[in-house]
Specification:
This protein is α/β, with parallel strands linked by helices. It has three domains: about 300 residues, Response regulator (Rossmann fold, 3-Layer(aba) Sandwich), CATH 3.40.50; about 170 residues, Rossmann fold; about 250 residues, Up-down Bundle (Rhopdopsin 7-helix transmembrane proteins). An eight-stranded mixed beta sheet has the order 10-9-11-12-13-17-18-19, with helices on both faces.
């Protein structure tokens, strides 16, 4: 038979206390569960979620807690089961672990009251110069579930350096060993959870989100860290809403409606909820009522809340993601839950209350159990369906962490422990900080901040009929700070990945033009020579080994912009050049054949020289074709300049002779100018001057090949001849020819009565062509080579037609 309450209290007092039997009443009044043991662990867990009439509290009386919460109740059962397993396994030979459990009711002041009463089991702690010799009735404390409660507990226990291990309190502040020297937790800090959340949002390009959090230390710290991590991942917050931490707050319903209004009106379709499960339940009920669905991101506080998965119409709220902590099976725990009972020699008011609620179910009093959804179950298996055991597994790890530290401190072997069980609690702290321990073949350890760094599982709430079930769809490893999503395991509600963006994605070939907020932008096309091969690029990338058109998604190799031999224009030029040279050859043959004709006989040599000059000038056109080189650039100008100068020099000599003949009315002047009428000497001098111009040009400011991106096609790199740095030599060459042409015109015009009309017209034609050439040459830089060779062709044909065709006609038809 189980011992009576009085016998149990006496046993507890004999083992863990020194004092009168009156302490039994103290234990019964203030602790919801206790079990005697050689070493006693304290447990602070909020099995109830509210304190009744808290706002009307005016005196320091006892607290009345309401709203039984299955999740922490299940967590406490794991602790009881694990302690019982350790006691029965001989893990600590000859030593029995006991516990004292107090309900904090999710209220910080009540949590402090729990800890003070645990420390006061043997009487209030005595004020000491230091507490290094303080012997506590509890050697370590498990709890609390919420960071808001763990923080004040940790501050108090750090005074006595009693180790505290939490399984779910993740506030980053608790990693500060200057303030919380004796605090440990078997989960990572929220510093990592917020990184994981931001990485998940970045993975799906959700950069426009809403956040709802609590107005406590935990909520504020998580929000602050998340904002920083979100900025690093280019994720922006559209809104931040805050709810009161305490569920009994008078304005909580109004706040919930306000949050629901914000969620419904926002274009941010992803909402991060850093809340307790009860807050989430109220928000979901409001969303279901409004028929509004979103993508919900769960903080660890509610990511595995099974009762939320069983809510009516839960499938209407949308997709739900979250992260969980340590996972694993608890051997024998399912059978333990199906037959819940206090440990042998223990008292457990929480189990008693739970069984009473089950009894009310059996008696059809479901209305007295508004939190229970499974009153129709005939056994207690519904707890296994209501609460996810993966969340409760961390309780098992925490108990084993303390048990391993005790085993090492007491120097236990397989048969006995050699040290005294009434040790000083602070001696466990250094062991916990430097200890590796194994639970179910998995090794764990605390880092320098007293935290675990094992990472998280990414979970998704998947449809299961009218309810939801958990499915692991990814993992976040702290070691590499990256979320690995198992895309093949994710089934979206609308079969497409939802978007949550301030602006639509900028397609490839564009980049973002940021507005006031980094996530809000317009899209600007990449300029020529740039590209973007991904969506939403901040800037377009420069093409390093190639080029691109505007709005390009990749670079291409430069296309060389030259006058190809196979191009249509080149073929026309070659054909016209060939025709011109053939005509010149035919013409010289014709003149030689008719060399005795009076038109030819006196000027045959001049005609031959002119033909040679025009052939050279025609030949210069060929140097404009193909991929130019610096020598080719200089060759084309030299050939044209010398060839055409030679032709114009012959014309000038002939025009000068006609002009002297025209001066017959002024014999003195005629005789004076006749001394300069040395045809071949003049031709040589005139051509030599042009030769010197070319020589000085090519020495002091040579032509070179200019490689420049085309204005008309950004993928083309034009290879063009640049005629010196300032075109001085190029200008002098053409000006010199123009001066010669003007002199020819003047002399021919003066001597027009001597049949000099061909000279007049040919020079006029040449000057007109090159006057037209000048503006086009400077305005159309990329077409300079085409314009110049066209001008050369027209000039050559102009001279040939205007100068030679009349002679052909006269010899043929006016013999």
């Amino acid at each position: 038979m189980a011992p009576s309450v009085s016998h149990l209290c006496l046993y507890v007092l004999g083992v863990v206390m020194v004092g009168s039997v009156a302490r039994c009443d103290f234990i019964e009044s203030h602790f919801g569960a206790y079990m005697p043991g050689d070493i006693v662990l304290g447990i602070v867990g909020s099995v109830h979620s509210k304190v009744q009439d808290l706002k009307n509290r005016t005196s320091p009386g006892l607290y009345t807690c309401t709203d039984f919460d299955q999740i922490p109740f299940m967590a406490s059962l794991v602790v009881f089961h694990t302690i019982e397993e350790i006691n029965n396994s001989g893990f600590l030979p000859g030593i029995k672990l006991g516990y004292l459990m107090c309900d904090a009711c999710v209220y910080g002041t009540k949590a402090l009251d729990c800890v003070e009463r645990m420390l006061a089991v043997n009487g209030p702690p005595t004020l000491l110069p230091d507490y290094s010799n303080f012997t506590s009735p509890i050697k370590a404390l498990l709890g609390e579930r919420y960071s808001e409660l763990s923080i004040p507990i940790a501050k108090l226990l750090s005074l006595y350096m009693i180790p505290q291990i939490s399984c779910t309190s993740t506030a980053p502040a608790l990693s500060d060993k200057l303030r919380y020297a004796s605090f440990f937790r078997v989960v990572p800090s929220d510093l990592y959870q917020t990184k994981a959340l931001a990485k998940l949002m970045s993975h799906y390009s959700w950069n426009w989100i809403g956040v709802v959090t609590l107005d406590d230390d935990y909520g504020r710290a998580v929000l602050e860290n998340f904002v920083q991590d979100a900025q690093k991942e280019q994720v922006c917050l559209h809104y931040q809403k805050i709810l009161p931490n305490y569920l009994g707050s008078s304005d909580i319903e109004e706040k919930i409606i306000n949050v629901a209004d914000q969620i419904e009106s926002s274009n941010a379709t992803v909402v991060l909820l850093i809340l307790r499960p009860e807050h989430v339940q109220m928000i979901f009920q409001e969303m279901i009522k409004r028929n509004v669905s979103r993508v919900w991101i769960a903080s660890d506080a509610w990511s595995t809340a099974r009762f939320l998965m069983k809510m009516k119409d839960i499938n209407k709220v949308g997709d739900i993601f979250g992260f969980t902590f340590i996972t694993g099976d608890i051997p024998g725990f399912a059978d333990y839950v199906r037959n819940i009972r206090p440990s042998p020699g223990a008292r457990n008011d929480f189990i008693t209350e739970y069984k009473q609620m089950r009894s009310n179910c059996a008696q059809g009093q479901e209305s007295q159990n508004p939190f229970f959804l499974y009153c129709n179950n005939t056994d207690d298996s519904f707890l296994l369906q209501t609460v996810d055991l993966t969340e409760a597994f961390s309780q098992r790890v925490a108990v084993y962490a303390i048990a391993n530290a005790i085993k090492k401190l007491l120097k236990c072997d397989d048969t006995s422990c050699s040290e005294d069980t009434n040790f000083l609690p602070w001696k466990l702290i250094s062991i916990l900080r430097n200890m590796n321990f194994t639970v179910d073949n998995q090794t764990y350890f605390f880092n320098k901040d007293g935290d675990f760094e094992n990472g998280y599982d990414l979970i998704m709430w998947k449809k299961d009929g009218d309810e939801r079930i958990l499915d692991v769809v990814g993992k976040y490893l702290i070691s590499n700070n990256n979320v690995d999503v198992y895309e093949q395991k994710i089934s979206w509600f609308n079969n497409t990945v939802p978007e949550s963006r301030c602006s639509k994605k900028c397609p490839k070939g564009t980049h973002k033009n940021i507005l006031n907020i980094t996530c809000c932008y317009t899209c600007i096309s990449c300029a020529a020579g740039e590209y973007s091969d991904q969506e939403d690029q901040a800037m377009c990338s420069k093409c390093l080994n190639g080029t691109s058109n505007a709005e390009a998604t990749k670079c291409v190799e430069w296309k060389v912009g030259i006058l190809e031999w196979s191009a249509a224009h080149s073929i026309v030029v070659l054909f016209a050049t060939a025709i011109g040279i053939l005509l010149l050859v035919a013409s010289i043959i014709f003149f030689i054949k008719h060399r005795k004709h009076r038109i030819v006989s006196e000027i045959l040599i001049l005609l031959c020289i002119m033909h040679v000059g025009l052939v050279v000038s025609f030949g210069s056109v060929i140097a404009f074709l193909g991929d130019p080189t610096p020598h080719q650039c200089m060759l084309q100008q030299a050939m044209y300049g010398l060839g055409f100068t030679l032709t114009v020099a012959c014309i000038l000599v002939k025009a000068f002779g006609s002009f002297i003949a025209f001066l017959s009315y002024d014999p003195n002047r005629q005789r004076y100018l006749s001394r300069f009428n040395r045809a071949f000497v003049n031709i040589a001098i005139i051509t030599a001057v042009q030769g010197l111009i070319c020589l000085f040009w090519f020495i002091f400011d040579p032509a070179f090949v200019n490689k420049k991106q085309s204005k008309y096609d950004s993928t083309v790199m034009d290879h063009m001849c640049a005629y010196g740095s300032n075109l001085a030599g190029f200008a002098v060459l053409h000006i010199y020819i123009a001066v010669l042409a003007v002199l020819c015109f003047v002399f021919a015009f003066k001597g027009r009565e001597n049949e000099n009309e061909p000279i007049v017209f040919s020079m006029l034609f040449h000057l007109f062509v090159w006057l037209c050439f000048i503006p086009f040459f400077f305005l159309m830089e990329e077409k300079r080579h085409i314009i110049q060779l066209s001008a050369i062709m027209v000039s050559n044909y102009g001279v040939m037609i205007c100068h030679f065709s009349p002679k052909w006609y006269r010899i043929f038809f006016r013999n």
